[in-house]
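Narrative of activities, Objective 1.

The group set out to show that a structural description can be obtained from nothing but a protein's sequence at a throughput compatible with the screening campaign. Below is one input-output pair from the validation batch, recorded exactly as produced.
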Amino acid sequence: MQASFHFKGINEMTIKGLEELFKREMDTTIRRHMGRLPVEDAHFHVSVEKNPHKHQYFVGIALYLPNKHMYARQHEKAPDIAMHKAINSLLKQIDRYRDKFKPHKHKK
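Output recorded for this entry:
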């Protein structure tokens, strides 16, 4: 898995913390949720922007797989909370996509 980051209006200390937070989640929670999906081909793009007029942060996470593209976007007053909400939103999408490949059990 690879990750690229884009930050706008964020200070260096916050940037470092958010990068570490996402990489930690990527290596644990996201990897576990991906299951048998092609993890080595996955690429994440994380975008964090601060609204210059309000105390509000926008976090967008795009996941690119060979045959699928998923995107989650959240906004909050704190960038780490927005990041967690975006990750949880993306995990729900990953679970729904992964469940399409599970064998269905039919009742007899």
